[in-house]
From TrEMBL:
Domain of life where this protein originates: Bacteria
Name used for this protein in its record: Isopalmitoylresorcinol synthase
Alphabetical list of SUPFAM superfamilies matching this protein: Thiolase-like (SSF53901)
A single MF term (Gene Ontology): acyltransferase activity, transferring groups other than amino-acyl groups
Source species of the chain: Agreia pratensis
Gene3D superfamilies, A to Z: 3.40.47.10
Domain called Chalcone/stilbene synthase C-terminal: residue spans: 214-353
Keywords for this protein: Acyltransferase, Transferase
């Protein structure tokens, strides 16, 4: 089995309380008093207490074209990607020139050459490193990225593969758009990055340390749900598509999908010691918990991440993973389920086991 040997998070330096963000951007989004009141209620109900923004908050009041915001994305995303991956490599004890495969994901900006290409000279990655930039998976891409690294490493058991996620969601908030989706998104999403370093089974066997081994992964794409979640690119950038149907998809599909997935690998919901859920928002986290009938506190790591930094799209589940390992070090043999939802609507389920003998 391939193994996660490093996971690191990075955040922009500009950090603001949710109340300050709400007060600043409300008039930017709408001049209608009733809509501003609705925005404030939505922000208060998001359970987000603080968020990091790629720009100082006053910059968002300026009229910025998509050309401008995407230029900001390219520069800042490269910096944050470098920070996250450098830290994850140090944690893993692996040099940059040992990396064989890079998977980069983002849904909040575009670049050609892609951000992963810009990282090669910055970090000293090899010129022949294999690179795959990934766009469009959105919030599910953190979990999907781990699964795709595992796919690669199954065929390259002595290899090193890395996942880099950068999401600068604040750059996608639309001025003058008082749609429900924009009001919700303006109070929920933050900016951040994360990186994961994984090694193949042969290389993992030679290491003295421990980490989460990837037991299995499963993808799902739910029919007739393309309207539920996503982005519509346009003249002003990426306009979010976000409906209450996300929780409905969880209610209809998630419990049975997770139960079958675990059963196919000899496990049950009760066997899982650690749940790493994408913190999509209060309704989504509650739906996850209800679908699996989880005991109280099972998703605390995800709730804490939501409060501290908001929903970071693809980077969020990786932040939760890093926080969980740091705050509550796993024990040998411990099973973990990591999962996320994204546009499609799609889901990615990953079963992990901490290496080493049970204590």
């Amino acid at each position: 089995m391939s193994r996660i040997v490093g996971v690191s998070a990075a955040l922009p330096p500009n950090s603001y309380a949710q109340t300050e963000i709400t007060a600043t951007i409300a008039p930017m989004i709408t001049q209608d008093a009733s809509k501003q009141a609705l925005l404030r209620r939505m922000h208060e109900g998001s359970r987000v207490e603080r968020r990091h923004l790629v720009q100082p908050i006053e910059r968002y009041l300026d009229g910025q074209s998509f050309t401008t915001t995407n230029g900001i994305f390219i520069e800042a995303a490269t910096d944050l990607a470098e920070e996250a991956l450098a830290a994850a490599l140090v944690q893993a004890g692996i040099a940059a020139d040992e990396v064989d495969f890079v998977l980069f994901t983002s849904v909040t900006g575009v670049s050609a050459p892609s951000i992963d290409a810009l990282l090669v000279p910055r970090l000293g990655l090899r010129p022949d490193v294999k690179r795959v930039p990934m766009f469009g998976l959105g919030c599910v891409a953190g979990a999907a990225g781990i699964a795709r690294l595992d796919d690669y490493l199954l065929g390259h058991p002595s290899g090193v593969a890395v996942l880099v996620s950068v999401e600068l969601c604040s750059l996608t908030v639309q001025r003058g758009d008082d749609s429900t989706a924009n009001l919700v998104a303006s109070g929920l999403f933050g900016d951040g990055a994360a990186a994961v370093v994984m090694v193949g089974a042969e290389r993992a066997a030679d290491r003295a340390d421990h980490g989460f081994d990837v037991v299995a992964a499963r993808s799902a794409l739910y029919p007739d749900t393309r309207h539920v979640l996503g982005f519509n690119p346009g003249e002003t950038g990426f306009r979010i598509v976000l409906t209450a149907g996300v929780a409905d998809v969880v209610d209809e599909h998630f419990g049975s999908d997770m139960t079958r997935f675990l059963a196919d690998h000899g496990s049950t919901v009760g066997d899982i010691a650690r749940w790493i859920a994408h913190p999509g928002g209060p309704r989504v986290l509650d739906a996850f918990s209800d679908a699996l009938n989880l005991p109280p506190g099972s998703l605390d790591a995800s709730w804490r991440s939501l409060a501290r930094v908001g929903n970071l799209s693809s980077a969020s589940v990786l932040h939760v993973l890093a926080d969980s390992i740091r705050d509550a070090p796993p024990s040998g043999g411990e099973l973990c389920a990591l999962f996320a939802l994204g546009p499609g609507v799609s889901a990615e389920l990953v079963l992990l086991r901490w290496s080493g003998d049970p204590e």
